[in-house]
Amino acid sequence: MNLPPTIKTDDIICQCHRVTESTIRNAIATGRLDDIGSVTEACEAGGGCHSCHILIQLFIDQHQEKPISVEELVHDHAQKVKKKGILTRFFKKLR
Q1: Separation between Cα atoms, residue 95 and residue 16, nearest integer Å
Q2: DSSP three-state, residue 86
Q3: What is the span of the domain harbouring residue 43?
């Protein structure tokens, strides 16, 4: 499994369905999931307001060891984000 070594808290990423970061990352790793829809099918994350899609895509990209473009993630998903504070923790690690 490709979890970042510095997870100190297991934040709830999907507020609508109360799905934690570790649940999402485990679903991605064990199911070899490569898109948000398949993550939603596996663990319900992303199935409500879609605000967490930006972080789900970040976790998918990290697991696949893809180069991460914060600008691209923001462009593709920021309009859905309702709770902006949680993004800071994840994006400050990338800069």
Answers
A1: 28
A2: helix
A3: 12-87
Instruction: Report yes or no on 95 lying in a domain.
Output: no
Give the span between the Cα atoms of 46 and 1, in whole angstroms. Answer: 21
> So what's the pLDDT on residue 1?
46
pTM, to two decimals? 0.80
- Burial grade of 27 (CB within 10 A; 0-12, 13-18, 19 or more): buried
| Counted domains in the chain | 1
Residue 54 belongs to domain with CATH number: 1.10.10.1100
pLDDT of residue 93: 65
Would you put residue 34 in left (φ > 0), alpha (ψ -120 to 50) or beta? alpha
